[in-house]
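> @MW can you paste both from yesterday?
MW: sure, first one:
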Amino acid sequence: MTLFISNDNQTLLYEMIHRDRAIHTAFGSQSEPKNAWFRSVIRDFYSRISPNITREELKAVNRQVLAYMIRTLKERAPLATNIPVTYNTLKREHTPDYDTIQNQYNAMFDAPKPTSVDFGEKVEDTAITNMEELIEHHKKQREIELQEYRPAVNHEIEDTTRIKILQDLPEEEVRATAIPEKKVQFTIPTEYTHLATEIEIIKTKIERVNDTLLNLVELLTRGSSTNS
């Protein structure tokens, strides 16, 4: 079925022509003669157009139909009598009704054009931000690895209870209870030595990676400034 006689298009034409006062003047409250006249106009135009028309051609045909309907309705309308002539009446008579109908039709039929959006600057900013986040994430991962491989440190705990007791004793007894100093010698196990060496190697690698990433960010920043 052609687009012209589809239910949607006929409903559109029917609603548009009813927005003009000429159809109410010509037919008044007589629905049957009005509907018969509408069907006859649709039938007449359908017999003269191609059965396979595009949407652009349909818009042109609809404009012709509405213009024809308004013209014939004004011819059918009885001459108005005893109507006071005012400024608004003269203005309506000299203003083509079809122009208003055509503007309303275009607003209902034509689809709005999508607006163009420029994403260029946003993409560059996002790329630099992601690179900085990558560097920060890389640093945090390496710090976590260093914490895992770092040997545990034994903190010296002060015996506050013994100090308080010694403060209350006479000086002679304090000297008697003094603990003689002992020189303690200990050797660092070989595995700890290797572990410390590996930690230093990891630190050096992290510094190199950070330097490389910072240089990359600087190059990207210069490139974005040159393009803009």
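MW: second:
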Amino acid sequence: MQNTRAKLMKYIAVHPAHKQNKQHDIVLQLDELKQMRNILKQQQQQAEQDRARLEMQIAKMTKEHNRSQAEANERFQKISEECKSMQQRAQAKSANEYKNPFKAFLGFGRQYG
């Protein structure tokens, strides 16, 4: 055993020292990199889901806007047609009243309520 110990001491004394590298820090950095990649993937997936949800919301709101715009146009057309028909009736009524100026002057043809 003395002989083995002496050989070991001699080997330690003669053997040149070289730089030691810490592998544990590298492993931690790789783990951190892996965690960062996982976090990035999760964020990308969340962004895709948010984008899809936003596109669906935009499509829904566009459809609702188009529908309400069409309804407003229909209401406008109905009101416009009613206004035109009222104007035509008023013109026809006034034309009938002014055919006989004496009746219009004396008040015939008017209805009193």
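> thanks! Helices lie at 2-14, 23-97, 101-106.
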